[in-house]
Amino acid sequence: MRAASLLALVFAVCAAGAQPAQVEILAPYVQTPPEAVEAMLKLAGVAAGDVVYDLGSGDGRIVLAAARLPGVRAVGIELDAGRVRAAREAAAKAGLAARAEFRRQDFFEAHLGEATVVTLFLLADQNRKLRPKLWRELKAGARVVSYCFDMGPEWKPERVIESAGCRVYLWIAPGRAAPAG
Length: 181
Ligand SMILES: C[S@@+](CC[C@H](N)C(=O)[O-])C[C@H]1O[C@@H](n2cnc3c(N)ncnc32)[C@H](O)[C@@H]1O
Hints:
Elements (H helix, E strand, L loop, with lengths): L2 H15 L2 H6 L8 H10 L7 E5 L5 H7 L5 E6 L2 H13 L6 E5 L12 E4 L3 H14 L5 E5 L11 E5 L2 E7 L9
Parallel strand pairs: 1-2, 1-4, 2-3, 4-5
Antiparallel strand pairs: 5-7, 6-7
Helix pairs in contact: 3-4
The structure holds S-adenosylmethionine (SAM).
């Protein structure tokens, strides 16, 4: 079994076995493989003018990869203070601090209205709980990509590809008037 598949399996088992309170507060820390980071940004069609939010940004790899693209600004939202610190240091070291911002915050509390792209590598339960917030706050046409986990049957993906042993899903936000799911 490939490493990414094994991680996804561990992640899925965690999702199935975790108590709801644990699931809400903190997904286990598993990094998106570099190949999948590139695939997620490509699937979302990230380009100049985009503002990319990674919810649960970990070591900041998705935010930094997005901020390396010309004309793109990226924001990572992460609860773990140590990871936020490390991601800020990595951004400064890469000369990306002006375009890669990291906030220590619960992503359920973050306002997402300026995001044109949202990236996720979270538990299935968290994706589903986030769905109404994404619908409510994102402008019509904003893209949401998720590594390994979907959004439940109520929000069918626009496209699904495979990368590093997992599915990568793309949804297009219907706009702020859409019903909460
Ligand atoms: C599977 S890791 C993904 C890390 C990174 N996005 C990546 O793709 O490599 C999930 C991250 O979400 C963070 N997290 C979980 N629940 C959160 C919440 N409610 N608010 C902010 N961050 C959260 C965890 O601390 C962890 O770093």
